[in-house]
Structures are given as C-alpha cells and as structure tokens.
Amino acid sequence: MGKGWLGAAARLSVPVESEVPMQRSDVVRRPTGSGRMAHIAALDGVRGLAVLAVLVYHLDPELLPGGFLGVSLFFTLSGFLITNLLVAEWRATGTIDLGSFWSRRFRRLLPASVAGIALVIVLSPAWTANQLAGLPGDVAGALGYVANWRFIASGDRYFAGFEAPSPLLHYWSLAIEEQFYLVVGVLTVVLAAGRSLRRWLVVFGSLGIVSVTATLLLHDPLETDRIYFGSLTRMAELIAGVLLALAVGTEMPTRLRSAVRIVGAIAFVAVLSAFSMVDLGTGALYRGGFWLMALASVGLIAGAMVNGPMRQMLSWRPLTVLGLFSYGIYLYHWPLFLWLDTERTGLNGLALTGLRLGATALVAIASFVWLERPIREGRFAGRPLVAIGVAASVLILCGTWLAAQESDERAIAGEAPAIVLSLEPVTSAPAEVVADEAVETTTTAPPPRLERVLIMGDSLIHQAYPTIQDRLARVGIESNVIGQPGETLMSAQGLWRNALDQAITEHDPDVVILQSCCGTGDPRRPDPYVDANGIELIPDSPAIWEEWRRLAWEYTVLARRNGALVLWILSPPANTNGYYGPIESRIDVANDIYTAASACSDMIHTIDWSLIAGTDGEFVEALPDENGDLIRVRSADGLHFTKAGQALLADLTRSVVLGRWTGRSTIEVDQCEGLGLRPTLAERAGPVTAG
User: Fold this and answer.
1) pLDDT value at position 366?
2) DSSP per residue over 348-382, as a string?
C-alpha cells in the first residue's frame, strides 16, 4: 500500500484483521482445560493504536509519516493471537483441527472482504480510467488473497500510486495474513504430533531467520516494493508474534513481570517514535527495519499483558472500541477516503476529515452488526454460506469487467491520448510531438553512433522511464536507468556518484540524461544535509543552493567523462499544496542551475519538461487533445504524471535527444572554465534563493 496519496511517498499500508473476531469475548483467552482463553482488553487497545496510526497516515502523512507501520504492529499482534489459539486447542485436545481452523478464518474474514470489494465496484463511477483498467486484476488478486503478488507483478512501485492508487491496494496486507494462516495451519498440524513446544520454537524461529535473510538478500533501493509487499519478507513480523506466544503465551511468568513492564514502556515509546519519525523513504526499513519494528511490537504486546500503567493506558475505552471495529474500518476506509476527496465534496481540512471518518465509521459499524457478527455467530452456516460467497465473487468479477469497459470511454489518464505539444526548436527535431503510441513522430532515425542512453534521476524519471525506454527502443536506442526514487542529487550524492561512475564504465553511453527535481531539505528527513567539508546546510538557504550547483557541475563533468552528450531535465511546475514543502520555488531555482550548467558547451543541453504546463507556464492538471478535449496529464499529488503525461515526456525526451545528438559540437567540458562559462558564477544562474 504506497510507492496518499502514495505520491508521497506513498505506498498504501492497511492493517488487517488481527486474527480473532472483533468481539471482546474472542480477542485473547488464557489457556484452560477446555481450550478457552481469558479476555485481555489491552490487546484490543494495541489493535486500536495500530488502526489509529494508519488512519492518521492516510488522512495526512505529514502528521504521522510512519503511521503505515501500524500494519507491522497488526502483523505481530495477529501472529501472537493466532498462535495462542492454536496452542490452546492443542493443549486441550492433543491435536489441531485444520479444517475447523480454516473454516473459522473463512467466516470471519471473507464476508467483510467481499463487501469491501463490492463497495469499490459500487463506487466505480468515481475511479479514473487507469484505476478501472486495473480493477479486474485487482479484484481477482483480492478474492484469491494474492493481492500483494499482484501489485509486485504489475510493477506497482511506491511512486506508482502517485497517479491513481488502486482502491483495492490495501488488500495486499490481507493477502499476507491469509498466506500466513495457510503456513501456520499446516506447520502446527505437523508439529502437533509432538508433545513439546520446543520443536515449534525451532521451526518458527528458523522460518523467521529465513524471512530476515531474504529481506537482506532481496534489498534493492530501486525496487523496495518487492520487500514491502513480499510474503516472505514481511512474514518475520508475524513470526515475531508467534515466537512470543510460544515463549510466554498469555500467562506471563511472575519473575518476568517487573522487567516486562519496563520493556513494555520502552517499546511503547519506540513504537510511537517510529510512527512519528520513520517514512516510506527510510532506506533502513528495507534492510531489516521492519524486523526491528516487530521487536518493538513484541515488547508492546508483552507489556499489555502485565498489570501496570501500560496495560491501563492500552485499555482506554476509545482505543478498545476502535480495536473492536478495526477490521471493517480498514477494509472500507481506503476506498471511502479516495472517493470523498476535495473535488467531489467541495470540502477540505477538518470538514473533509470529519466526513471521511464519519462515513468510514458508519459503514464499518453497519458491516459489523448486519454482516460480520451474524455470520460469525452461525446464523448463516454451511453450504448456503459457501454458495453466497461464490455467487458474490462471480457477481463482483462481472461488475469489474463492466466497470473496466467504461475506462475506454473516459478521457482521463488511461491510454496515451493524442495530445499535441509544441517543442522548443532543436536541430533536426520535429515541430510537434503527438503522445499517441499508435502515432510515430516524424523524427528522422538517429545517426549510427547513437546507440546507448544512460538516465539518472529521482521518481519523476523512474516513473516515466518505461515509456521513455519504449520510445528510444523504437528507433534502435538502448537505454538504462539508475538513481534512487525519493532521493535527490544531494541527499544521495554518494550513491548516485558511484552508480553514475559504474554505469559509465559498464555501458559507455553516447548520451547521459540527468534529472533531480527539487528538494534541498525535507522537514521529515532525520539527518541534515552537509557540504563537502561536513558543514550542515540549512534547507533553501543560499549555501545549500551553492552546494546543489557544485554537485550538478560535478555530475555533468562525470557524465562527460567518455565524451557523452549531457542533457539536464528541467522539471515542470508543481502544485502539491505544501505536501513536499516549498517545492514550487525549489523547482525554479534548480532549473536555473541546470540551465547554467548547459550554457558552456553544445555537448551540454536541457530537456525542458516544463513545456508540460499552461500557456503561461503555470501548473495545469490537463491539456487538450487534438479534438480539444481535456486529458489529465498530472497525478493527484500535483507533482508526478499520469500515463498520458508520461507519454508526452517520453516523446519530448526522445525528440530532444535525437535533435541534440545531430547538432552536437566539439566544445569540451574542460574548456568551459577557460571560456568564463563555468556555472559557479552567480550571474549565470541568477540569485541563489528559493523565492
């Protein structure tokens, strides 16, 4: 779930049903002779805390940038609860009824899950063409509890959500949960043949080590969603709860209670700190950070089981009530939040927040009272329930197919429409670009020597790269992309410098395209920016922009090492309503620096993406096609691009690359300083301010 709306960062994260039903009598029970367990209200509060964190995150990520980690807390709590139930059954009966176990999961999770999918279908008139086009696959993945692999296979990185997040993206966490039930059910049945929990600890502990190891081995800073959505990589968080249940159960040994109270308090602070300080761009998350969150969750859960201030705090009635309805809240809140936006409601701020929360609460309560509880209580049981589930699934799939057909008739962000965009004059470049995949531009074939293009940049270039790669491939040009989504040439300077140096050595590109949008200081960033001398730089200060200019020139020189043509991308205007800080003014300053860097040689130029704007250079969400119909080209976050916008950028990029390659000269970079054109002079870029 990211990859707000996911543009920020955002990949969507949604907590799931913490194993047991949402009724207080079923939440946690202490083992007895009958296999029953006593209720611990504080664990309802843990669920409520996790739910609240994710709600706040989805309402406004700036308020709680790490709120998505609520799903990690849910995972660990679920592993703890499910294992206690299975162990209680094993102790009471000497065996585990796997059929009964899966039947209970089916009754408790599937009805509301299907209802959530049905809600998305009902709201289909509100979805964009891209959302509708992907809906059949999303529905199939959600119904089959493989949604996480659906999003991995479809290449939904965290920035993919910038355009239009799937209204079913949150089902990724439900999929991991159900896959866990499958694994733990089979393993416990096998392990139940023995009479010692030691074997259980060894097996699940080993599986946890495998999960953590897989995270480290699969880590790729450019493919973080493989870890974020992966079943094996996220399984460790569930297994942490399993191990806690196997180690202590719900009867905390007396000798440990004092220590657990202290550990619980520390864990509580750690969890709240993670919610407040971590964000989706934190690299450590994808190198074992989720496991650290799981350890903090273990401490919090353990603390909730011991009498003391922590248990009393987590037993606070509002938290426990929120935990009671958490499953429905998280199934329904995401599509409702997407549907109830400012454009549709005319509201913003607290009014919009209240409407979203109120609608979510009403739907969740109605679902609990009229759907989930009756089924859990056995009012609808056996074959009729199965028949209803199958029929509902068929109807939903039919509904998604019909909804997807509507996407072909929507003039919005789905396929690349025929938007006509005038280009800056370039040698041998066409006068206009048509962003229709079925319509080729009139650009002549590149000279034989233009064979390889290397591209480096942030999420803007990575989002558009698949389309750019296609456009270049059509005229026989190989391309590669490096860099780090969510980072800048300054924040990732070491990584980017090394990656650029290595890529130039390996690929020997004819053309190098460089792009870094605009960030010089994110208030959510834990570490300050420093210059080459280790001096801390204040965001948006003249000093930090001088450092930005120095780094831009350093990358330019490095890119020119083998004589490549260098093209700096000028970012288009943005309108993020402050989400990314003063990004609009930062774009202007960064563009001035890149323009200055291109002034000294005909082997250094710019690709002006700012042409994707209004007639006066202002930010616009849509541009007219050849028939005058408006086509959305910018994503909801006001920074990134729709598929249509990406097609425009790709055609523009190809056109400028071909034109500049044909018109290149022999002025070398090392001559720039002698010509008095080295872009460290203030007069070359104008005032070094952020406006």
Assistant:
1) 94
2) -HHHHHHHHHHHHHHHHHHHIIIIIHHHHTTSS-S
Q: For domain 420-440+450-682, give the CATH number.
A: 3.40.50.1110
- Answer for the pair 76, 291: CB distance below 8 angstroms, yes or no: no
Which comes out higher in pLDDT, residue 420 or 450? 450
Distance, in Å, from the CA atom of 344 to the CA atom of 596, rounded to the nearest integer, reads 43
Closest to 521 measured CA to CA, from 457, 585, 573:
585
144: its two tokens: 């089959």
Residues of the chain with CATH 3.40.50.1110: 420-440+450-682
User: pLDDT grade, residue 496 (50/70/90)?
Assistant: confident
Would the pLDDT of 61 be above 60?
Answer: yes
Distance, in Å, from the CA atom of 633 to the CA atom of 266, rounded to the nearest integer, reads: 47
Q: Which residues pair with 483 in a beta bridge?
A: 457
Work out whether strand 452-457 and strand 432-434 pair parallel, antiparallel, or are unpaired: unpaired
Give 650's contacts (C-beta < 8 A, 6+ positions apart).
435, 464, 467, 468, 470, 471
H or E stretch covering 632: strand 630-632
The total number of residues written for the chain in this structure? 691
Edge-to-edge, what's the strand order for the sheet holding 604-608? 478-483, 452-457, 511-514, 565-570, 604-608
514, 456 contact by CB (below 8 A): yes
CB-based contact 246:200 (threshold 8 Å): yes
3-state SS, residue 177: helix
What tokens were used for 406? 């509507």
Of the chain, the end-to-end C-alpha distance in Å amounts to 35
Using DSSP, how many helices (H) and how many strands (E) does the chain show?
24, 11
3 state SS of 623: strand
Beta bridge pairs of residue 422: 432
Question: For 511-567, what is the HEC assignment?
Answer: EEEECCCCCCCCCCCCCCEECCCCCEECCCCHHHHHHHHHHHHHHHHHHCCCCCEEE
- Please tell me what DSSP assigns to residue 287: G
How far is the C-alpha of 277 from the C-alpha of 152, rounded, in Å? 26
The full DSSP string for 73-142 is HHHHHHHHHHHHHHHHHHHHHSS--HHHHHHHHHHHHHHHHHHHHHHHHHTGGGS-HHHHHHHHHHHHHH
**How many other CB atoms sit within 10 Å of the CB of residue 485?**
21
Percent of the chain with pLDDT over 70: 73
Cα 43 from chain centroid (whole Å):
28
Residue 253, classed as helix, strand or coil, is: coil
Confidence of residue 632 (pLDDT cuts 50, 70, 90): confident
Structure-block tokens of residue 320: 């426990």
Q: What is the pTM of this model?
A: 0.63
What's the token pair of residue 42?
A: 């504080």
Per-residue confidence (pLDDT) for residue 688, from 0 to 100:
38
Burial of 618 (C-beta count, 10 Å sphere; 0-12/13-18/19+): exposed
DSSP string, 407-466: HTT--SSSS---BEEEPPP-TT--SEEE--TTS---PPPPPTT--EEEEEESHHHHHHHH
Give the Å distances, CA to CA, from 410 to 400, 416, 568, 642. Answer: 16, 12, 34, 14
CB neighbour class for 52 (10 Å; exposed up to 12, middle 13-18, buried from 19): buried
Please give the average per-residue pLDDT across 85-106, as a whole number. 86
Query: pLDDT grade, residue 379 (50/70/90)?
Result: low
Say how far apart CA 237 and CA 74 lie, in whole Å.
9
Asked if 117 and 139 touch (Cβ cutoff 8 Å), the reply is: yes
| 433-438 LR contacts (CB < 8 Å, sep 24+) | 433/648, 433/651, 433/652, 433/655, 434/626, 434/651, 435/644, 435/647, 435/648, 435/650, 435/651, 436/647, 437/647
Residue 616 predicted with pLDDT over 70: yes
Angle at 606 (CA atoms; ends 630, 670), nearest 5 degrees: 175
